[in-house]
Every structure is written in C-alpha cells, then in structure tokens.
Amino acid sequence: MLSRVAESIYWMARYIERAENTARFIEVTLNLVLDQPMGVDEPWRPLINATGDDEIFNESYSVADAESVMRFMAFDRDYQNSIISALRIARENARSVRESLSSEAFEQINTLYHFVSNAARSDQSLDSPTEFFDSIRRQCHLLTGILDATMSHNTGWHFANMGRLLERADKTSRILDVKYFTLLPTVDSVGTAIDDLQWSSLLFSISGFEAYRREHHMILSDKVVDFVMLHEQFPRSVRFCVDNTETSLLAITNGETTERHALPTQRVAALRERLASTTANEILRFGLHEFVDSIQSDMNEIGSAISESYFR
Amino acid sequence: MTPVANGGRYLLGYTRLWRAKTIVFFNFVSYPEQLEVSVLNDPISFEHYKTDQFFDELIDSAGRPRPDAAPLVEAINRLPSGDLIRRQAAIERSLHRMGITFTVYGDASGTEKIMPFDIVPRVIGSMLWRHIEAGLKQRIKALNLFLDDIYNGQEILADGVVPRALIENAATFLKPCIGLKPPRGVWCHITGTDLIRDADGAVFVLEDNLRCPSGVSYVLQNRAVMKRNFPQIFSTSKVRPVNDYPAHLYQMLRWLARPEIANPTVVVLTPGIYNSAYYEHSFLAHQMGVELVEGRDLMVDDGFVYMRTTEGPQRVDVIYRRVDDVFIDPKVFRKDSVLGVEGLMDVYRNGNVALANAPGTGVADDKVVYAYVPDMIRYYLNETAILPNVKTYICQRDEDRKYVLAHIDQLVVKAANESGGYGMLIGPHSTKEECAEFADKIKKDPRNFIAQPTLSLSRMPTVVDGLLQGRHVDLRPYVLHGEKIWVMPGGLTRVALKKGSLVVNSSQGGGSKDTWVVAEPGQTAVDTQEQN
Questions:
Q1: Do you find a cis peptide bond into A49, omega within 30 degrees of 0?
Q2: Rounded to whole angstroms, how far apart are CA atoms B463 and B455?
Q3: How far is residue B338 CA from its own chain's centroid?
Q4: Residue B310 is nearest to which of A88, A111, A310, comparing CB atoms?
Q5: Angle between helices A193-205 and A209-216 (to 10 degrees)
Q6: Do A2 and B307 touch (CB under 8 A)?
Q7: What are the pLDDT tens digits along chain A (312 aa)?
Q8: Cα torsion at B501, B506, B361, B331 (round to 10°)?
Q9: Which of A235, B131, B381, B417 qualifies as a FRET site for A197, CA 20 to 30 Å off?
C-alpha cells in the first residue's frame, strides 16, 4: 500500500479517536459538575490539564469555566486538538484516501464533520451539551463499526486500528494521570462520597464503570489503576490497546520482520512485555505520574518508529 | 378547506422539515419553495412545451417527439403528477451524499457544490451517433498524426499548411518534447471533444480537449443515479451502456506498457485533493482498481519510476496523468512545480514508463490551431472532415481581423489559451464597453484570439421552476485511443440553466444530463437489473 495512504489512514483514525475522547471527557465533566457540592474550585480545570495544552488555553481564555472550556476543547478552530480541528484533520486525511475507504466510511466522517461544524458556526450556545457530546461519541462509534464491517481487514484497516489504539492508550493514561493528580490533595477524603464520585467519573470517561463494578464492586484506587492500565480484556485499558497494536503490526508485516520494519515491532513487544509484568502496586510505588509519563514516551517512540518504517 | 387539501399541506410541511434537517448534515442547496406547490397543481408534461425558433433535441418544430425520443416523451407524459420533480430531487440528494462535487472552496465555508443535474435525458439516434463516431475517430487520428509530425519531422509546417510561426510561438508547444517517440506511437490517448448542433441540427466541433479532459465521471454517475432512481424509463428506449468506460480505459493504459511486462503497474497521478477534478481522479482510480498517487508518492531511481509503499519502493509502468504537462517534471518544465516527479521525463524518453496523455498535446487544442484541423485531416488522411468546425476567424489574418473588429458585437471572441468559459466575449450579450475592451486586446495580441459567429445552439427540454423549458446544450463525448479508437456511446451533455444563456461550463452555472445513445439491433442496451 502507498506510504502516504497508510499514513493518512493512520492519522485519520487517530484524530477520530482524539475527537471521541475529548467528547467523552467533556460529557463526563458535565455530569460530574451536576453531582458536585457547590464551591468546588474550578471543576473544569483538570480537563485542560489532561490535554497538556494549558498554555495555549491560558493565552486565549481567562477563566476555566464550562463555557470557555467547551469552546476551547470542542469548537476552537485555532486549537489543533479541539474536536472540530481533529475532525477537520481526520476528514482531510479521509478525503485524500477516499478510494481506500469504503464509501460508507467516508460518508460517515463527512456527516460527523458537518454535524460539529454547523454547531461550531452557530452563535448560540448548545441547547443540550450532554446530548451533543453524546452524539459525537455515538457517531465515532458508528464510524468504527462501519470500518470494521465494510472494509477489508487488510493493511489499510490495520493501520487505522493501530492509530486508533495508540491514541486511545494515550488518552486513557492521560485521564488517569490527571485524575490521580487532582485527587492527591484530598487524600484525607479517601472513601468519602466525593472521592467515590471522582473515581467513578474516571471510570465513566472510559466507559469502564460497569465493567469495573462487575469485577470489584468497591472503588479502590489500586484496583482502578489496575483496571485502567493493566486490564487484559477491557478495550480501553492501556494494556489492551498495546496488545492489539502488536497484533495489527504483525498482521501488516505478515509475520516476517525485515530490517526496514524491525524497530516498531521491537518497541511494541517491549512495551507489551513491560505492561504484562507490572502490577498496580508496583505502579503506585514507582509513582503513577512517573509511570504514565514513561509509558507515554514509549508510545510516542512506537509512533515515530511506525512513521519511520512505513510512512517514509 | 377540504380534508384532502389539509392533508396536502401537512405533507408539504413535513417534507420541508425533513429537508431542513438534511441541510445541517450535507450542506444542501436549498430548493425553491415554489417548486413543490406548482408540481402538485400542474403535472409536468410536454403539452405546453415550446421549441421557439430553436432546434430541439427531443421535439420537432411541429411539436411532435422526434422518432428516437418518442418512447421517452410518452413515458414522461404518463408519469403521475409531481413524479418527475420528486425523482429529480432524489437524484440530487444522492449526488450530494456521494460527495460528487466539482469545486471545493475553502474548508471554513464548507460549501461543496454538485454539478446541477437535470432529469430529462438527451436522446441521440443511432444514425446520428454513427456519424459522430466516425467523425471523432477521423479527427483523433489526424490530430495524433499532427502531434507526431510537429514534434518530429514538421512536414506540415514545411509544406505551409499550418503556419510555422503559429506553432513555434505557441506557449503550448513544448520544446522538450521535440524528437519524442511516445510508446506505441500514440500522443493523445484520452480526448473529450466538445460538439454542438446548430439551428438545423447539424453537428459541429467546437473545441478539442487533448490535455486532461474531465467530466467522464459525471457521465457514469449520472447514468448510475438515473438507473437507480428512474429505472422504468430505461425499458422504453434501448440505451447503450457507458459503465464499461473504466474497463476500456484500463485496457488502453495497460497496452501502453512494454509488451514484455506481464503484469504492468498502472497508476492515476492527481495534483491532490484541492484540484477541482479530484473526485474524478479518485473515482477513476477506484473503478480501475489502481493506485491514486500524488507527485510526492513517486520517485525516480536508476532509470525507473517507483512509488513509495509500506513495503518499500514499487515500480510503476504506466501513469495516467491528470497533472498538467508543464507540472510533471520540475527538472524539465516548470521549476516551481511541487506536483510532479523530478526526472520523470528522462525515464519517459527512455521508454521505461508510459504517460497518458503524452506531454505536449496541448499545442493541438490551442483555439487558433483548432481552425486548421480540417486542413490537417485533408493533409494526413486525404479525407474531408466528417464533423466540420464552426466557422472561425483567425485574428492574426489581416482580412479576418478586420471583419472581427467590424462585427465584434455579433461574434463570440475567444482567447487562445483560456478554458472554462473565461477569457471570452459573447458579442450580442455584451455592452459597448466590453466589446471595445476586447477589440483593444485583439489589436494588441492578434495571435491570441479567434472569433466565431454566435450560433443558435440546439436546446433540450429541462426542468426549470417546475416546468419543462428549452435550454441550450452541448455534448462532450469521450474517445480512447488504444490499439483501436473507441468512442464511448454517450458523453457529457452540459446544459446552460440560465434562460437564453449559451455558456454551459459548470463554473458558470451549467448543469448536466444523462445522454442516451440508442442501440442498433445487435448492440447491447442498458439492463437496469444489473448492479452498479
């Protein structure tokens, strides 16, 4: 397959996943704010922290309230990682490779883009933000389903899958990092209702609340870390994403590893190995923030190795 | 108010509501409200259709359907009230949803337009088609001989049939192509010739498009949506299929590869997604099952062209280029081109890659060179042109220029190297100032202008404001020159939707129609049961 086409499909999937995760984070925060006692300081600030783009936000916005955070993360066309920008980039990529996608997939990306673009263009604030962000999330799921069901699971599909999974692993680890970080000052309140709410919202934001409850019932921080980082079967856990990135990478190389393609395979295998041999308690002892940081830089290196080996 | 009327109202309101919703998703052009109302009151038919003083493609001057069009006209007259408009709207919706757009403006505005589509197909009888087909084959044959001649022996210039200065001063005459011997000796493989019919129905050639003619994807898509949305009317007329065009195109491209290559790699080269014809490039690559590449996907190494793939470089044998020739190789043509491939021309000259069309073909569709095509046909083939040119005044000739300047308000003046309806003056529809401005341009640079009489273009019944009205049309059939010359039975009928307008270009408010060539006994006709 053409390198440019593979690259476009990979980034298309990454940006769609980025848009979906951003919509998720906003949706969960909206719900969280409703459940919170009055007077909690800047409930929207952690969302900006999770993006790692605080500086860009602070340049254009003075306060982090519902209005400004939603505008920034959903509709700001100057901000590269807003939902609208992510969808624009995804659509540009899709347009340049539409002959490699099924027409249904292209139509869905187009529809989704116009849905958000029209909302962005309107001056009025959203009637029902929850419904709007929920709808974005659903439409992203629809696209994933369309890709799965209408596209040959060929090299192109595997590049899309890798893009999606690497992006998802990054976002899952980020949200855990930020939640944990903001929860630290309130160590005293462990086990109280608000803490429970915070941890639940973390699980909600990765659609993992029900799956977690089924296994653990009680919300315990080490169990949550284990679930979010190391769960083998839950499709948004970091480990699951890394395991399946490796599966797609092997499908692309067809089991044969030439010198040109050796690096990404080695790096993914090393990270998979690392996650498989770690426990939540080790992570917490090591320092969650430090652990997440090192996982993220591992994933960035996998990304650049894929780019070097396949897209150049 | 009767309950029935109330029911009707409700239905209308509901329809509008549903449309409003789709506007949000697909950026639909909104429809005139009047349309639906008049349809309900006034069924569309040919009953009140007027041909005025024009030649009409479907109806004769006495108001009777022409024999080949009779089954279609009767079928339309039999349609239940409002049916034609409803189907037309359904077709436009499909075209939007499929993203078949011709121009993409900046992303921020989000406007992507479809070429407006009119549901009433043009019907071309088999006799007329045989005449057109023979004329096109003859013309392409002569034009190819001409191209080969002027880039090699230049005999036609030596014999004084075509003025030497005309060719050698043409911007489209590419010096790096001198001495070129394209694979299989063909220069122009893909042609889209613009034809018109005058007040008597005689067919003339208006323009040869020998570079990268576009529009064939509309022909295929127009047919596909007509078959899907209006299958019953096909059964009344025997229509020849057009959907084998990509197969013919692929066969032709394959044939250009070196014969010893068992399984040649064919690609389509596009300037990229911002090109107005990108949809077509993508569509043709998809239909042929070949890669759509951009210049940056290709590289020259060791005397061959390769494309960069995830498995490493892969050799390319045939390139259907939709990038203008002066952009294909920055080493040879425009240095600032980022759309091409450095070193491509060297590989091409050595015969290690084939290009369709060959670079340099533009010199033969120069609007001044056009005037000499009938002479070329006589010179190379010793035949008379089957399809005549429109009478053309060459402003470089003193006598012609005098006539043009004196009658500029009656003529159509065209600049030699402009297309898409730009750089053009339609005398009778222009102000005195506009005419004077063009007269100055002609005096300054006579070489660059030709003039033609204003023709009374033929018309087609077209749905406008809920009624059938006559609108002017042209026809662009597509010709492939491979081992044999093949003319696709049909083509792109473009229609000037503005009343009285003669400009059919999509950039200037033109639309298109499905074009039906009637099958003769023994020829295949469209089967609406088949899947597209």
A1: no
A2: 23
A3: 27
A4: A310
A5: 120
A6: yes
A7: 999 999 999 999 999 999 999 999 898 888 877 776 665 667 788 888 878 888 999 999 988 888 899 999 999 999 999 999 999 999 999 988 887 888 889 889 999 999 998 888 876 677 788 899 999 999 999 999 999 999 999 999 999 999 999 999 999 998 888 777 666 545 454 455 556 777 888 888 888 888 998 898 788 888 889 999 999 999 999 999 999 999 999 999 887 778 888 999 999 999 999 999 999 989 988 888 889 989 999 999 999 999 999 998
A8: 140
A9: A235
- In chain A, which residues have their Cβ closer than 8 Å to the Cβ of B96? none
Distant-in-sequence, close-in-space partners of B269: CB < 8 Å, separation ≥ 6: B293, B294, B295, B298, B319, B320, B321, B322, B323, B328
Instruction: Determine the residue of chain A that is closest to B268 in CA distance.
Output: A99
Residues 6+ apart with CB under 8 A from A310: A3, A6, A7, A159, A252, A261, A264, B310
Q: For residue A98, which residues of chain B lie inside 8 Å, CB to CB?
A: 99, 282
CB B126, CB B519: distance < 8 Å: yes
Task: Give the integer Cα–Cα distance in Å for B292 and B316.
Answer: 12
Point out the residue among B25, B99, B293 whose CB comes nearest to the CB of A2.
B293
All residues of chain A having their beta carbon less than 8 Å from the beta carbon of residue B309 are 1-3
Q: Residue A158: how many CB atoms within 10 A of its CB? A: 22
* Contact criterion met (CB below 8 Å) for A263 and A305: yes
Question: Is the CB of residue B473 less than 8 Å from the CB of residue B460?
Answer: yes
Q: What is the DSSP string of B437-488?
A: HHHHHHHH-GGGEEEEEPP---EEEEEETTEEEEEEEEEE-EEEESSSEEE-
Signed CA dihedral, B376, B380, B383, B385: sign only: negative
The two tokens of residue B66 are 């022409």
